[in-house]
Design brief:
Elements: E1 15-19, H1 30-42, H2 49-53, H3 60-69, H4 71-81, H5 87-105, H6 108-111, H7 117-126, E2 130-134, H8 139-151, E3 158-160, H9 173-182, E4 190-194, H10 197-205, E5 209-213, H11 224-229, H12 232-248, E6 253-255, H13 261-275
Parallel strand pairs: 1-2, 1-4, 2-3, 4-5, 5-6
Helix pairs in contact: 1-5, 3-5, 5-8
Bound molecules: magnesium ion.
């Protein structure tokens, strides 16, 4: 028996779904990192940056649960508090996290657009794409990010936050809700781009083209200033490691930044036109 599979690349891209922190705004995804470090510091637990970044991209409540489940953090918590962290602690930490994160989000060092984001959005629209954003932030946090982004010239056609869906990344619902809200299908006419492993997984789970963003995101983990002062060899090593993680997650392609997205869409649409 022979099965004819559809050619995988015949639909031009009509929707680009972008992650926020580390992809569109907040070079290096520093805002959530700073908030998690401060939250745990207030409870007597000093997190290493790498620990705090591990679950990035998931819903912030899940992120807190994942941090408490790390053996070292779990032990530190037990030593400091005399009890194992439970659901009440998670709830309390999440409630404390929100004002900490909200206060950080409007600071310009975290709210600035990633270089090229505004230009990329207008180029993508010129290529016939709508633009959606998804985030692990709740709506009150997302409102702040979008307000600051709009002041800087970036406004998506649709935004879906962690508050809107039953489960965040790597589930596909955030990205698929963008498509549903705009009435765009099939999913092969959508490309999802994000800077974390769960972003890539969510795009694949959604049946979309799924791209990783390496240089400006959580896996590189550096502000633009810090990245520029890094020795070239160290920068190259860190970038190669970030790219490798995103490729290993199954990304169809890994870009350095959002600025490269219009060229990817243009090349994809060219291939699609040739194969249609
Ligand atoms: Mg991100």
């Amino acid at each position: 028996m022979s099965i004819a599979y559809p050619t995988p690349c015949v639909d031009p891209i009509r929707l680009v779904v972008l992650d926020l922190a580390g992809t569109t705004v907040d070079y290096g995804s520093r805002a959530p990192l700073a908030a998690f470090l401060e939250l745990f510091r207030r409870h007597g637990v000093e997190l290493a940056e790498e620990e705090a970044r591990g679950p990035m991209g998931t819903h912030k409540r899940k992120h807190i649960e994942a941090l408490l489940a790390l053996p070292r953090v779990h032990q530190l918590w037990c030593d400091r508090h005399g009890n194992e962290p439970g659901p009440t602690d998670v709830q309390q930490l999440y409630e404390e996290f929100q004002p900490i994160q909200l206060a950080l989000l409007s600071q310009s060092e975290y709210a600035n657009l990633i270089p090229g984001a505004k230009k990329a959005a207008s180029e993508l629209r010129a290529l016939g794409c709508r633009i959606g954003v998804t985030t692990g932030y709740s709506w009150d946090m997302t409102d702040v990010v979008l307000r600051e982004a709009a002041r800087r010239g970036f406004a998506p056609d649709v935004a879906v936050s962690g508050s809107d869906v039953p489960e965040g990344r790597p589930a596909p619902w955030l990205a698929q809700t963008c498509a549903r809200e705009l009435g765009i299908y099939p999913m092969t006419s959508v490309v999802k781009a994000g800077d974390t492993v769960v972003d890539v997984e969510a795009g694949l789970n959604a049946g979309m083209w799924s791209l990783g963003i390496a240089a400006t995101g959580n896996l590189m983990g550096l502000s633009q200033e810090a990245e520029q002062t890094l020795a070239p060899v160290e920068r190259a090593q860190r970038l190669a490691a970030a790219r490798q993680r995103l490729h290993a997650a199954g990304a169809h392609a890994v870009l350095d930044s959002i600025a490269e997205l219009p060229a990817w869409v243009e090349a994809h649409n060219q291939r699609a036109a040739e194969q249609a």
